[in-house]
Amino acid sequence: MYSHKLLKPDGRKLKLYSRYPISGQLEAPSPSNEPVQANPHLRWHPLRGEWVAYASHRQGRTFMPPPEYNPLAPTTNPEFPTELPQGKYDVAVFDNRFPSMVSTANNPPDTIVETLPANGACEVVVFTQDARASLSSLELDHLDLLLEVWGDRTRELGQNPQIQYVLPFENKGVEVGVTLHHPHGQIYAYPFIPPVPARMLSMQQEYYQEHRRGLLQDLILKEIVANQRIIYQDEYAIAFVPVCARYPYEVWIATKEPVSTFMDLTPQQRWGLAKALKTVTLKYDGLWNRPFPYLMAWFGAPTDGLPHPEAHLHAQFYPPYRTSERLKYLAGTELAAGMFANDALPEEKAKELQAVKVNIEEPISA
Questions:
Q1: Contact between 165 and 303 (Cβ < 8 Å)
Q2: For 137-152, b where at least 16 C-beta lie within 10 A, e where not — what string?
Q3: 364 pLDDT above the threshold of 50
Q4: 3-state helix, strand, coil in the chain (%, to 5)
Q5: Least crowded by CB within 10 Å, which of 135, 247, 355, 360?
Q6: What is the pTM of this model?
């Protein structure tokens, strides 16, 4: 992996990553030269026992720009700079212009509940320079690089003592609220462990203390024995519709042997995850022969510097469709009660995805 750090005119950081040596006019552009004036804060929700972030400056963030102005494409006209420079590189990561958390947040307002500065980080990860691409269309070694990038960002962000948890994710499709169609994801680095990963880590820790084995590790073994919901597997990685899926087309991707973070992956495990990632996204797009929306989130260990043998790095995909034309809306029982109701059996949806034929092999050059 090759990388190169740059600084934007407005003070934000940009880091380029590539499978090959990086070349080109490596001057970091920015749509604005004005420094980001963000001072988000957190307020404690006493009934739910969790923090809520407030970042009113995000109201002005970019929303569905016309194709001729793509802020995530490399700059072609210096008079109208985008976020990225021209050059030979594969993946770019930069500080979000409209962050929900920043390391410099300070002086939160006084309210009737506890408040804190939202000390964290929000980064944008541009998967490729090609605006027409998607994860499913990227080459395997490009996906392998992306996994390595997520590891590099987790390591670098986690070195900040403010940060307790790093979450890479991708929102794909207008159905999940995407406002920029260029293939990209985000990374949120939190000053606490957020409720969802905290709950999963608690369950994993409890299981590990009792069995001295990983909870997800044993669930994967049971899925392999059942052999009903597996979408992809090789020696190192697996993708499956979990037996407990909350969304009809939910899929998890994981290494078969537990690793806690991206940084702990062997090259073979990372390559296996790249093949699983390409298989799942190809099957999604091939299911109804159109781009398939989802939220993809990667869960691993906290960045507290302590060993976490209970944590098992994995991705969870939450697609919003329950049929080709009908969305699964989160409503009363999901949002109000916190209990999901799935209208389809995981085994049925797994069969649909299993039936989609895909080819993840690299094309042979003539």
A1: yes
A2: ebbeebbbbbbbbbbb
A3: no
A4: 25, 20, 50
A5: 355
A6: 0.94
